[in-house]
Amino acid sequence: MIADGPTKTYCHRRLNFLTSKFYLHEMLNEMAELKELKSVPHRDFYNVRKVDTHIHAAACMSQKHLLTFIQETYKTDSDRVVLEKDGQKLTLKQVFHCLNKDPYDLTVDSLDVHAGRHTFHRFDKFNSKYNPVGASELREIFLKTDNYMNGEYFASIIKEVAHDLEESKYQHAEPRVSIYGRSPEEWDSLSKWFINHKVYSPNMRWIIQVPRIYDIFKEKKLVPNFSKMLENIFLPLFEATVNPQKHKHLNVFLQYVSGFDSVDDESKHSDHMFSFRSPKPEDWTTDDNPPYSYYIFHMYANIMVLNNLRKERGLSTFQFRPHCGEAGSITHLVLLLTSDNISHGLNLKKSPVLQYLYYLAQVPIAMSPLSNNSLFLEYSKNPLREFLHKGLCVSLSTDDPMQFHYTKEPLMEEYAIAAQLWKLSTCDVCEIARNSVLQSGLSHQDKCHFLGVNYLKDGPEGNDIRRSNVAQIRMAYRHDTLCNELSFIADAVKSDAMNSQYD
Amino acid sequence: MIADGPTKTYCHRRLNFLTSKFYLHEMLNEMAELKELKSVPHRDFYNVRKVDTHIHAAACMSQKHLLTFIQETYKTDSDRVVLEKDGQKLTLKQVFHCLNKDPYDLTVDSLDVHAGRHTFHRFDKFNSKYNPVGASELREIFLKTDNYMNGEYFASIIKEVAHDLEESKYQHAEPRVSIYGRSPEEWDSLSKWFINHKVYSPNMRWIIQVPRIYDIFKEKKLVPNFSKMLENIFLPLFEATVNPQKHKHLNVFLQYVSGFDSVDDESKHSDHMFSFRSPKPEDWTTDDNPPYSYYIFHMYANIMVLNNLRKERGLSTFQFRPHCGEAGSITHLVLLLTSDNISHGLNLKKSPVLQYLYYLAQVPIAMSPLSNNSLFLEYSKNPLREFLHKGLCVSLSTDDPMQFHYTKEPLMEEYAIAAQLWKLSTCDVCEIARNSVLQSGLSHQDKCHFLGVNYLKDGPEGNDIRRSNVAQIRMAYRHDTLCNELSFIADAVKSDAMNSQYD
């Protein structure tokens, strides 16, 4: 369907229409929207809720923050054993001695975790930026949950980030932590880390990211086939759902987990074309990595079954919010069929049909233009403004403050740059912020509190301007426009049915 | 000269050459520069000194900061008399009552001091943004030095900004305050404000801005001719220089004043063409405003004479750092003849001869791309990166955080956006920061401390990489390139002289 000529023309024209219609709306109603906002007491862009809908836990602190944390830790903890390597136990002092570095002299330059010109279209270089000073030892010590110290340092630094969010009061984040599917013990270890170090924060929800690295585990003989990887990821969750008493830690942790992500470089090519003839997971025994769509389908299938089971038992369910459309084939974006929302969505630029479908279905998109600017697409070419104007449900997120941002307030930096460069109005940025809360994994209670009790209703009725600072004029415009597009299609289907009746 | 065809071609080609040469330098030396920076202990972009070289005191706080300050002040001071209007004394409560506003309900939206789409090419609208809630009363109460409370609130909020700078440790600012030339008492009032409220901060130096609004004073019959305005501005300074004991307050204040600025909308047209036939200031008695060049020349002449007098007596001297080349005729930029450095310089884009002269003479330019983006030139078209690459001495400054910035760290926001959008390297941003210290009015001792004791020397010798974090490779490149251009011209002049000798 996405390659069909007439469909492409139709969608392209509808999208152009949506753009022009918004400009007209803007010209006619901009001042009226602003007037509405000015009359809202005590609410402005600074105190509307904003959720960082896409942020990786291992890079959720700024480079300066990580540097200071390492230096402070060294001051008090240099004689502590922090790493076991080749059977040898090493203290923090010994680790730095091996690296031939004095923590006091470390700088953000020598830490070298910031992306730049050199990472553009080089996901491999970008990935290695996760290693402070280029040393995987420091990543292991400071940015992992399951190391020699059971991830104590990583928990501490995340709690500092959480503290900053709580101080800001109006900012929330959904950090993504990894489950690899290497062994079935990962869940236990992760939930113990969460509970023992009390990583809970009212301003944070958690997302589980699964890297698409079956080929690495297979090569190391950690798993015999793809099915085993899926089992390592999902079986513990089924067990915890069926027998919560036996898996107390995991059950507590799962209350704060809002969904799953699938991560890796989308531009990697795969020779296999996923179809109903593809091998079943237990038969995927080659050393090759399965393609993107194969991963996504099997994660989706497992999450669906798991959610149904959990719903039956009155337990929380999980969203599926994969990275999608950051690079690679546009067919990745077909997974709007399987996803609750996606991260990036840049490639929607290239497919009018998919873009229009994302609009019609209002599939939320967590966009990170500063991340894209360092990796895949220059800021000025980012489609975020265009998507927002057309009415796609976009939010702003940081992806990796450690690699991309400069100030102490990465999410505000992201909003500031978008607002400055694209000359967004206050109503625009507040609409993005509202979208971020809507598409986040925050609880129903939180959403009622942050957006108003009717937030699930469509159009202006669902908007409490005193909380969202989004003009009702804007809400009405969005609602009318969407209803119009939908009824257009409904009418076409109806008349088509009528015609065939008389055929 | 700036209109001469062959000269234009020559300069244009030299500038293109400089651009290409820098790209070559970058390609060949980028990694080597980075390696140099990585090996510098304890110094990175975050702890090199940065001076905000162009910032207006009345807008040096963020919009959110001003809002909070007004609300906090109202909580404790609502019954205080703060304004005298039409002979009536009004308390803060009464003022807000007249405006029909409750300070608790105020938001940044209703405060309405932020620039946006509506201020582009509308300097008039921009100017009115200085009035919180559109009310000149609030500007009078909170953002003036000589009001009913002798500027107590304005002093308090500036001290809060200074406190943030001191906390940051590595950030400095040179706020600009106004002397209008309306009456000779302005200096006394300003210096009393400075001393009585203890506005001094080690992280701040002061610049005096003179608005070009003779026509308004003339119309109100406050001054009979232009000479009287100049006298009001400069005579008190001559008197304080000749007789310091009689003007103690002013003399103390002048120790912290580093220079003068001339401000207003440069795009305003004037019918008068300044030349040696122009009327003398005492004969400028029409109601028309003199043109830009007339103002600049007469300010320059007065500052020169004043500086010579002060130098003789061992007193501090003043720089002349006017707004120039933000808009209007390119001929404004000819004032590199009269200025120590300029603010904006955007129009150098349009004149290769002037741009090349600014390069050769290394006239410092304080640029504010975010301000330009809201007023005169889109960010993507800003020439800052191009100027930097060619080797012009540019710094980054905020102009008006209240109107343009979003985060709590406006200067860092300015650097962050430039670094992100233009993919500047660490060496690039540190070079800009070093330029900002060099071109600032900080004392010689401060500059020795921040840049190294040899900072006045040319080339790598003058650079202490442990303080500036600018690679010596970069310094050598800049120095060689400039010497090369200069010797080119020297050679041409020499051979020209030789030729005429044999003519």
TrEMBL record, chains A, B:
Keyword field: Hydrolase, Metal-binding, Nucleotide metabolism, Zinc
Protein name: AMP deaminase
GO BP annotations, alphabetical order: AMP metabolic process; IMP salvage
InterPro entries documented for this protein: A/AMP_deam_AS, AMPD, Metal_Hydrolase
Pathway(s) where this gene product acts: Purine metabolism; IMP biosynthesis via salvage pathway; IMP from AMP: step 1/1
A molecular function GO annotation: metal ion binding
Domain of life according to the entry: Eukaryota
GO cellular component terms given for this protein: cytosol
Organism listed in the record: Dissostichus eleginoides (Patagonian toothfish)
PROSITE patterns given in the database record: A_DEAMINASE
CDD domains given in the database record: AMPD
Residue runs in coiled coils: none
Cofactor or coenzyme needed: Zn(2+)
EC number of this enzyme: 3.5.4.6
Homology family: Belongs to the metallo-dependent hydrolases superfamily. Adenosine and AMP deaminases family.
